[in-house]
Design goal:
This is DUF7702 domain-containing protein. Keywords: Membrane, Transmembrane, Transmembrane helix. It holds the Pfam family DUF7702. InterPro entries: DUF7702. The protein has 265 residues and is mostly helical. It has a single domain, classed as Rhodopsin 7-helix transmembrane proteins (Rhopdopsin 7-helix transmembrane proteins). Helix content is 75%, strand content 0%. It is built from nine helices and no strands.
Length: 265
């Protein structure tokens, strides 16, 4: 699939893959910690890390072996993951909603329903691409529909964030920290989505995540994804799980009720 692959030469794009292995290995460990400590974000961060680790591993494999299987692994793994970031940010907003009710439940259900449509389109697109003999990396009607749905879900998430941001004065300190993290991540994620949109709209291979320009991929894909995972992981690490928070509140409540029963004289 790549004229220079399989020649044993370590290139710029391979260096990016090594950096991905380092960064997303740390992200995977963070996800395991979040799961163990019953914190939010473990699933989205963990699965995203797995996709990027597998994709980077396949990319490094093409240094010595130019096989369709390895390139298919890179293609599939690079095609997945952005939705997980969107749902990670929605999960952080939903945590705020569990503490301070701001939005109705359907606000978080609608993106999930739309996602199932996107999954169906992605499966159809993968089957269609496998049947093509040439231009497998070029945009198809399926990929265009898929990125359109992805953009709609992003806009839904961004609108939900604005709704929560406007009410941040009502949040406790922990929830304000959470919404501030989402505020940083929303524009960073926009950079990542614009990268995909440019390729889908123009069909310019410069913007292709598999064979495109390595600098464009680094600046508009890898660095934004790593930044978002780092910001959310640090934020989640600093906030207790809702179970711990409710336990502390219950303890404080019992303590305050008990203090009322202590005689003053």
């Amino acid at each position: 699939m790549n004229n220079t692959a399989g020649d044993g030469v370590f290139r710029y794009r391979d260096g990016i893959a090594v950096a991905q292995l380092v960064c997303f290995s740390a992200a995977l460990l963070a996800a395991v910690h979040f799961r163990w400590t019953r914190r939010i974000g473990w699933f989205c961060i963990g699965v995203l890390a797995l996709f990027r680790l597998i994709g980077a591993g396949c990319m490094l494999g093409t240094i010595n072996k130019d096989t369709d299987g390895l390139w298919a692994g890179v293609f599939v793994c690079e095609s997945l993951g952005v939705l997980l970031i969107i749902f990670l940010l929605l999960e952080m907003l939903e945590r705020i909603n569990n503490v301070v009710p701001v939005a109705r439940r359907f606000v978080f259900i609608v993106p999930q329903v739309i996602t199932w449509i996107d999954i169906g389109i992605s499966i159809g697109g993968f089957v269609a691409v496998k049947q093509k003999e040439h231009g497998q990396l070029l945009p198809t009607p399926y990929s265009r529909a898929g990125i359109a749905i992805l953009f709609v879900i992003y806009l839904w998430m961004a609108g939900t964030f604005v709704w929560f941001w406007l009410r941040r004065a009502d949040y406790p300190a922990i929830e304000r920290r959470t919404v501030n993290c989402v505020a940083l991540c929303v524009p960073i994620l926009a950079i990542r989505i614009v990268y995909s949109l440019i390729f889908i709209i123009t069909a310019d291979m410069t913007w292709n995540a598999v064979k495109g320009d390595s600098t464009a991929y680094l600046i508009m894909t890898m660095l934004p994804e790593v930044a978002i995972v780092a910001l959310t992981s640090v934020t989640i690490m600093k906030i207790p799980s809702l179970t711990q928070e409710k336990g502390t509140e219950a303890y404080d409540d019992r303590g305050s009720r008990g203090s009322q029963n202590v005689p003053l004289v």
